[in-house]
Amino acid sequence: MLAILIHGDTKSYAQLGYAPVINISPTLPNAAAAPTIDRSFISYSLEHMAMPTFLNSPMLNNLMELWKSKTGGRPGLRIGGSGMDKTTYVPSLDQPIMWTANPSSQYLVGPSYFKLVREYFPSDTQITFGLNLVNSTDNWQNTVEFAVAADENIPQVDLFEIGNEPDLYVNGKQRPRGWTGKDYAEEWKSVANRVKKVLPNAQFQPAVFAGSLKDNFDLSSLVRAGINNYQFKIPTYSLHFYAQSACSGNQNLDRLVDHNILGAQLQRFDPELAAAEAGGARFTMAESNTVSCSGFVDVSDTFASALWLVDYSLAAASKKIERIYFHNGPTTPYSFFIPKGANGLESGIRPIFYGVYFLAEALALPEPGSTTNFMVKPIPLPGSPSDIAVYGLYSNRVQRPNLDVVGTTKVAYTTTVSKTMTMVSTDIFETVQSVSTKRIIKSIATSTKSITTTAVFIVPKETMFTKTATLPGTKLTTIENQLLDGSTMTETVEIAYPTVTEIVLPTITRSRTTSQRVYTSWVLSTIWTSQEITITKIVRRTTPLIYTTSSVYVAPTVVTSTQTTTNPQATNIGNFPSYDGVFLARAVILNLSPYNTSDEKVLNCRSCSAPSPARYGTVGPRKSTRVTVTGFQPGHRLKLVRLRGPGLNAKAGVNVSGIAFNEETAEVTYTPRPGSIYVEWDGTARFDILASEAVLLVDEKVL
């Protein structure tokens, strides 16, 4: 198994938690043992009214294309959000979209809107199109017309959503008090049936709840109410998730990267995942990000959001959440980027997108056109530390035949040896004798080695000595003065009168002394020997065979209590099977120990609305931890990719192994330069990781 051994300051669990060894299985028993990550896992959610701003810039398309170039899957697009319930289709409108304040805040959409969307996004983009549910005028006639127009004019439309976050309609005074999930189900079915009548092949993504899961706003209730694949074409159900909320005042940078808080938040969705599967569909987070209500400055626009996105995405994928649609606005704090022309802000890439690119590297295909899919498995750690997260990524491909595997049967011995096979056959039965040679431990010799060291020490010593000193002093004396009239005047005056005395003072003397220490070490030496094994088998044959003798080279598996590996100097580093299987290909390690910078140069970014306050910088140096990894295959080179920023609160200086972007087009201007480490023949590989940093290890021999 793969183990990660941590060296460093053990006083702080923040140096990768408090589990000194992290065990990751190097293989999975089969391809169904862990969820497969969808190649379009990271997707985008945009409002209808934001589309003209986003589509007036090449940035969105370039970033989506960058993801596809790595993973082989184009990100999906959800056009929805709170504005979809305020959108009205106007066939006579000569603008793509416009806002009107009468009779209430509404967005009017014209036919040219469809052309704008159709021509910007490539044909393989899967679009989920949001429709109004709030306005029921004429039995939702305009909603049906909008759906038909979108279907006819945007061939990329794949799914329809009807209504956004209906579990908040009562609080928003869009439905009367007492309106529940049962009422929503009836309204949804009414609209969906009308759409299905004119578009028989229409597919839907129902629910779209904010996540309160109260008053029958849950997937189990929807399935029971008839919103299921028996009545409609429903590939996916969806809910929304934000880690924190700007509407409730619940924003905190350190809590955003707390792995245990994230785990508890996602655990709430376990019943919904089960309900979606029971309804014959998959589960998505159709709207998600760091902080709801458009994000929060100094949280959503910082490097912390990039680390959170990596942890959240891999944790969600491990729960069989198929996709996450990250909500973006033209100027909102949680946006991946700010497109050119957005009011009040310059265009640029935000820190959170570097988390997206780091994931793209983690899920990158080993070669163009590869059929590889990656399965993700979170690694539970002793004590469940909140400041470390580890994920194993496994390839579903049959691996190359030259994998350097080792392990046990009780122990699988895989050293290549010479073998002679003699076959004896008769008309009916055949005797097969196999003679092979194995290497076993004959004895282990113990020797000692002593090393004597000599050290010279300077020893200080305090002594006392006597010294004669003159001490200042005064005395009184009487002076008589004869006056002119013959009288006498007596005057007492004080005069200086020093005295000589002896005083005792301390002094420091130093002497040299010599000390010797003897160190004794024990050395274990293994003495190997050879042993022949003869195995006889009787097998039935339908035709006689001729006596033959052949010499071959094989890698036999021998049951022995002695640990053996591909290299006599290696130690047994895990239960690697000697057959093709679902192998560990990559590992992601997140050190979520909080570190904040006070460097004002990186507390603001080109596209940010304001700098982070400098007063929250972490006191003291940023700690680094040496990590020893065992479990990757000996002799392999591991590509090492880092997601690094100056601190959680940084808004600039964030990168993934040096990648850089054009801030107006989002084109890559400097390709990343990953590092590399080698797995030694004893199965160990080592690297350093900073507080508030993520590391990706890629075994490029595992396809």
From TrEMBL:
Annotated protein name in UniProt: Beta-glucuronidase C-terminal domain-containing protein
Pfam family, one: Glyco_hydro_79C
InterPro entries according to UniProt: GH, GH79_Enzymes, GlcAase_C
Domain Beta-glucuronidase C-terminal: 584-696
Domain of life: Eukaryota
